[in-house]
C-alpha cells in the first residue's frame, strides 16, 4: 500500500492499483460514476487491467470496509454497477477479444468489452455470438445472466455456449472454471454469476455467421390481442433461423406492433420463407428486407458513455403460451392511460435445447419474454400498476430485465431446485455476501 488518495475515506491503495483508482477529485470520475439507469456517487472507481488488479480491488474494499459494485458495460437495469459511497470495480479496461481456435470457433472475450466490439472483432473471422439487441451492453452482465439476442432461436442464449469462465472469487482467488475443473462454478456463472464471483473473461463457442436477413414490419393490433396470438403461433412454427422482437406502441386506443425480424441466414430463399408467415398475422406493412452484416445489428455507433440517462423502471416475465387472456392483458397494458413500453422477444428454438438443470437459467420451455418499462415521473408506481394484471400469465422471469430485484423476482428467476443450488453456491463462493446482488440474505 503506498499511494495516498485525496479522498478521506480511502487513505492508501495497493501498489498495483496506482493510477487505476479514480476518486471524485479526478477528472476521469464524471464519466465513470454512473450507469445507464443510475447516477452514482461512489467513493472510488477502480479500473483493473488484470485478474490480479481485480483481486487487489477486492482487498482494498475489504480493508476500507467499502461496499462493492461490479460493472462491465454499465447497462444493468437495477443500477447495481454503481453505488453511493462505495467502491466500483469497473472492468472496462479488460476488453480483449481473441479467437483461440478458429476450427472449433472458440473465442475468449474479456468481461469489459461491449457487444458491438465483440461483433466487430469476430466479423473478419466469419464468426458471431448472439448477445442482446444493443451494442453498448457489456459482456460481463449478459454472459453471467443469460443473453437473449438477435439470433436467440438459432443460437440459444449467450450462456449456453460458454465453455469456461475466468473468475476472481470474493476472497481474491483467481480460477479458470470449465466442465472438468470446477463444474459448480461454471454452472452458477452461467445465469447467476453476479453473486458468485467477478468474471474476468469467458471462453465462448461462436457460430459461423456473416450476414443475416433483417426487416421491420408494422402490424395493427386489435384490443383482443388476436394479432399477438397469431404472431406467437407463427413463431411457434418458425424455423430456428427466425428471431423477432415486438414493441407495442399505442396512441389513444390504437395499438401497433413494431416487429423487428432477423433471419440467421444469407440465403434469400431461406429468408423469404422464414418471413412470409409473419405477413399473415393481420394488417401488416412490411419494409424491404435487407441482407446485412450481423455487425449492423449491434453497431459501433451504439457505444456511448453512461450518465444515468435512462432512469426507467423495468420488469419482465416469461410466457409459455400466448393465451387469449394473456394477449388481451398485454394490449391493455400497452394502451393504458399511463402507458408502459411493452416488448415481446421470441424464445423457443435453440433456447429449448438445454435441460432446465444445465445452467442457472432454468427457463427452457417458455416461448416469449415480456419486458415492461415505465418512465419518470412515476416510473415504479406506473410499472407496478401495469404489471399487476400481466403477472398471473407469466411463468418465471429473466434476471437481467429487472430494475428492482427482491425476494419475489429472485424466486421467479431461479425457480425450484435452481434456487436451492444458486443459493448454496453463492454461499460457498461468497460466504460474506460481498457481491450479493439481492436475495437470498
Ligand atoms: C438498452 C438495453 C438493452 C438491453 N438489451 C438486452 C437484450 O437484448 N438481451 C438481453 O439478454 N439483455 C438485454 N439487456 C439487459 C442486460 O442483459 C443487462 O442489463 C446486463 O446486466 C447488462 O450488462 P452490463 O455488463 O452492461 O451491466 P453492468 O451494469 O455493468 O452490470 C450489471 C450487474 O451484472 C453483474 N455483472 C456485470 N459484470 C459482471 C462480471 N464481469 N462478473 C460478475 N458479475 C457481473 C453485476 O452484478 C453488475 O452489477 C439490455 C439492457 C439495456 C439497458
Briefly say what this structure is.
By secondary structure, this protein is of the alpha+beta class. The chain has eleven helices and 21 strands.
Average pLDDT value? 95
E-strand count: 21
The computed structural class is alpha+beta
Poorly predicted parts: 1-8
Give the tally of structural domains: 3
GO molecular function: FAD binding; oxidoreductase activity
InterPro entries: FAD-bd_PCMH (IPR016166), FAD-bd_PCMH-like_sf (IPR036318), FAD-bd_PCMH_sub1 (IPR016167), FAD-bd_PCMH_sub2 (IPR016169), FAD-linked_Oxidoreductase (IPR050416), Oxid_FAD_bind_N (IPR006094), Oxy_OxRdtase_FAD_BS (IPR006093)
Family: Belongs to the oxygen-dependent FAD-linked oxidoreductase family.
Pfam families: FAD_binding_4
Describe this protein's structure.
- The chain is an alpha+beta fold.
- The protein has 3 domains: 9-90, Uridine Diphospho-n-acetylenolpyruvylglucosamine Reductase, domain 2; 97-209 and 417-429, Uridine Diphospho-n-acetylenolpyruvylglucosamine Reductase, domain 3; 212-413, Vanillyl-alcohol Oxidase, Chain A, domain 3, CATH 3.40.462.
- The chain contains 11 helices and 21 strands.
- The protein has helices at 51-64, 115-122, 139-145, 152-155, 183-192, 226-237, 268-275, 324-334, 379-387, 407-413, 416-429, and strands at residues 3-4, 12-13, 21-22, 44-46, 68-71, 87-90, 97-101, 106-110, 127-128, 162-168, 174-178, 198-205, 207-208, 211-221, 242-251, 254-263, 284-286, 290-293, 313-319, 341-346, 368-374.
- The strands form 5 sheets. Strands 14, 15, 16, 17, 18, 19, 20 and 21 form an 8-stranded antiparallel beta sheet that branches.
- The site of flavin-adenine dinucleotide has 36 residues, from strand 5, helix 3 and strand 12.
- It comes from Streptomyces dysideae.
Amino acid at each position: 500500500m503506498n499511494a495516498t488518495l485525496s479522498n478521506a475515506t480511502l487513505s492508501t491503495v495497493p501498489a498495483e492499483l496506482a493510477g487505476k483508482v479514480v476518486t471524485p477529485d479526478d477528472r476521469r470520475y464524471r464519466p465513470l460514476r454512473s450507469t445507464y439507469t443510475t447516477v452514482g456517487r461512489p467513493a472510488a472507481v477502480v479500473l483493473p487491467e488484470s485478474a490480479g488488479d481485480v483481486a487487489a480491488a477486492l482487498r482494498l474494499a475489504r480493508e476500507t470496509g467499502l461496499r462493492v459494485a461490479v460493472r462491465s458495460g454499465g447497462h444493468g437495469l437495477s443500477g447495481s454497477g454503481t453505488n453511493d459511497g462505495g467502491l466500483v470495480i469497473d472492468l472496462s479496461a479488460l476488453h480483449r477479444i481473441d479467437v483461440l481456435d478458429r476450427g472449433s470457433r472458440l473465442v475468449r472475450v474479456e468481461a469489459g468489452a461491449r457487444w458491438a466490439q465483440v461483433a466487430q472483432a469476430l466479423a473478419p473471422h466469419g464468426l458471431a455470438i448472439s448477445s442482446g439487441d444493443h451494442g453498448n451492453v457489456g459482456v460481463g452482465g449478459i454472459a453471467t445472466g443469460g443473453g437473449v439476442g438477435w439470433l436467440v432461436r438459432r443460437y440459444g442464449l449467450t450462456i449456453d455456449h460458454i465453455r469456461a469462465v475466468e473468475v476472481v472469487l470474493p476472497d481474491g482467488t483467481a480460477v479458470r472454471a470449465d466442465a472438468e475443473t470446477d463444474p459448480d462454478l461454471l454452472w452458477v456463472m452461467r445465469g447467476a454469476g453476479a453473486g458468485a464471483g467477478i468474471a474476468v473473461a469467458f471462453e465462448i463457442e461462436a457460430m459461423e455467421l456473416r450476414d443475416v436477413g433483417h426487416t421491420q414490419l408494422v402490424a395493427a393490433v386489435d384490443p383482443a390481442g388476436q394479432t399477438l396470438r397469431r404472431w406467437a403461433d407463427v413463431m411457434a412454427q418458425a424455423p430456428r433461423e427466425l428471431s423477432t422482437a415486438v414493441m407495442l406502441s399505442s396512441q389513444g386506443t390504437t395499438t401497433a406492433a413494431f416487429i423487428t425480424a432477423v433471419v440467421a441466414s444469407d440465403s434469400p430463399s431461406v429468408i423469404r420463407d422464414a418471413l412470409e408467415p409473419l405477413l399473415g398475422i393481420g394488417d401488416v406493412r412490411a419494409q424491404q428486407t435487407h441482407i446485412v452484416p450481423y455487425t449492423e445489428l449491434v453497431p459501433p455507433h451504439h457505444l456511448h458513455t453512461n450518465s444515468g440517462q435512462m432512469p426507467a423502471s423495468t420488469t419482465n416475465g416469461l410466457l409459455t403460451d400466448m393465451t387469449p387472456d394473456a394477449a388481451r392483458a398485454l394490449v391493455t397494458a400497452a394502451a393504458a392511460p399511463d402507458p408502459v413500453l411493452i416488448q415481446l422477444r421470441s424464445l423457443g428454438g435453440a433456447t429449448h435445447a438445454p435441460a432446465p438443470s444445465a445452467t442457472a437459467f432454468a427457463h427452457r420451455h417458455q416461448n416469449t419474454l415480456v419486458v415492461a418499462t415505465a418512465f419518470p415521473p412515476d416510473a415504479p408506481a406506473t410499472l407496478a400498476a401495469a404489471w399487476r394484471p400481466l403477472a398471473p400469465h407469466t411463468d418465471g422471469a429473466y434476471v437481467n430485465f429487472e430494475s428492482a430485484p427482491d425476494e419475489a423476482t429472485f424466486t421467479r428467476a431461479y425457480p425450484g431446485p435452481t434456487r436451492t443450488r444458486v443459493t448454496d453456491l453463492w454461499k460457498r463462493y461468497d460466504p460474506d455476501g460481498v457481491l450479493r446482488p439481492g436475495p437470498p440474505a
